Structures are given as structure tokens and as C-alpha cells.
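Could someone model magnesium ion with this protein?
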Amino acid sequence: MYANPPLVELVDIWKNFGAVQALRGVSLNVRPGETHALVGDNGAGKTVLMKILAGVYQPDSGTIAVDGSVRHFSSPRESRQHGIEMIYQDFALAENLDVRSNIFLGREVRRKTIGKLLRILDRPYMDKEACRVLASLDVELDPRLKVSHLSGGQRQVVAIGRALAFNARLVIMDEPTANLAVGKVKKLFELTRRLHDLGIAVIVVSHRIDETLCVADRLTVLRQGQVIGRFRSGQLSEARISHLISSGLSDLGG
Ligand SMILES: Nc1ncnc2c1ncn2[C@@H]1O[C@H](COP(=O)(O)OP(=O)(O)OP(=O)(O)O)[C@@H](O)[C@H]1O
Ligand SMILES: [Mg+2]
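Reply:
Sure, complex below.
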């Protein structure tokens, strides 16, 4: 059906934690630039699956392919090298640092000073890049503000900016609306559309289907570690997908 391989493809992923079977043969693919919703009840295995894609956990079995080539991610760093960035529920930002420092946290850009071997932080470059990234997201945020002074929505912008500064091709957002006020959810989904326009694929993890249905091109439903439905946007009503998530009945023709 498609000429090109998916951006990422997870095939038959299994993961146990002791006696807990978190994932039981999950397959999922994401196309370049696609917004994909991963939905399911608490404990369905959504976060574990995404952490496997982000290199935080390794699967017991199954494969991950990027651009059609099988890859093994033994750390988040390796996953990032393939353009995969995960934004965690708590955003993992450093409170005491400003926006620009957070955008480059752990990956600071340094330059050689003239006549010396010492490599100092390249602040002008990082300032310029921070502004470019924030502008590409169409948000106004002073890069010199301390993160401890920011709202939940602004923190999310910083976390997304972090991903963009490193040329992410796929941004994973785990429960991005969990800590947001209602009005801010709309803003977040505008950001998601912006990423879509920039050609960046997004996986939105959520147990709120009402929210994800309006932004996602496709939707995968997990229940107790297994995929129980895959849908294109508009294929099913919110009520029917909700029913599927809570009942686990595969009677919906998906
Ligand atoms: N590090 C871990 N050690 C042991 N069990 C774990 C670990 N991480 C996840 N689990 C278990 O794996 C299962 C899937 O968890 P996961 O966090 O992926 O669920 P989820 O779908 O993200 O749920 P939620 O919507 O509540 O975030 C759960 O039973 C959970 O308790
Ligand atoms: Mg989770």
C-alpha cells in the first residue's frame, strides 16, 4: 500500500517485569510525519512500549526497525541518534536553569576559544537556536526565563523545543495533557499540528480518546499488553472506541 518503509516499526514486542506481562506481542508502525495516538486504560502497557522505543527498556523479544532497518536501542542516546525523542510525563527539566539551558541540557554546544584548546559553552549559538526552535513552534517564550517560573504548558513547550533542537523525526508525548488546564490542551494540540506541518511524526499517548481523536491520523488501542484495535481517524466514533478500551471486546470491526 505504501512505497516507503515506515519511519519506525515495532514488531511482536514482548516485555515482562517478573510475573507482570506488560506487553504481549505488540506491533505498531508510524509513518513519517504522521500523528499517531496510542490509547488504552491505566496499566495497558503504553508507557512501557514507548520506553522501549525510546531505548529506556529493552524488549524480551521482538524487533524495532527505523526506515526499514532493524535497530537495537540499549539506551535513550541510541534511540535519539535515530531522531526519536520521548517527552516524559514530568518533562524531566532542570528547575534551576533557564529555558535555553534546558533546551540544550546534557547536549550543550561548545566551541574552541581562539588560541586555546579549552572548549567553552557556545552561548550565542545556543541562544540563537533556542529562539529559532521556539519561533518554529510559534510560541512566545523568553529563553532566559527560569523553568521554575514557568506554567505547565510553557514547560511542555520547552520539552518539545528540546526535541526539535536535535532534529527529532519522531516525538513521543506520554500523557501530554495530564498536567494541563483545559484551555492549555487546545494550545498543546496546536503545537502537535505544528510538528505535523514541520514533517515530524508524533505519538500521543493518552487514555483520553476525546482529546486524541481530533489530532491523530491513526489510533492504536492497547489493552492488557495487547493491541485490540487499529483505526484511521474518523473511522469510529469516540463512544465506540471508549467502549473498546474499557470492555476489551473486539466486536467493532476494526
Ligand atoms: N519498571 C517496572 N517494573 C515492574 N512493572 C512495571 C514497570 N513498568 C511498568 N510496569 C507494569 O507494566 C504494566 C504496564 O505499565 P505501563 O506503565 O506501560 O501502563 P500505561 O498503559 O502507561 O498506564 P497509565 O495510563 O497508567 O500510564 C503495568 O502493570 C505496570 O505495573
Ligand atoms: Mg503510562
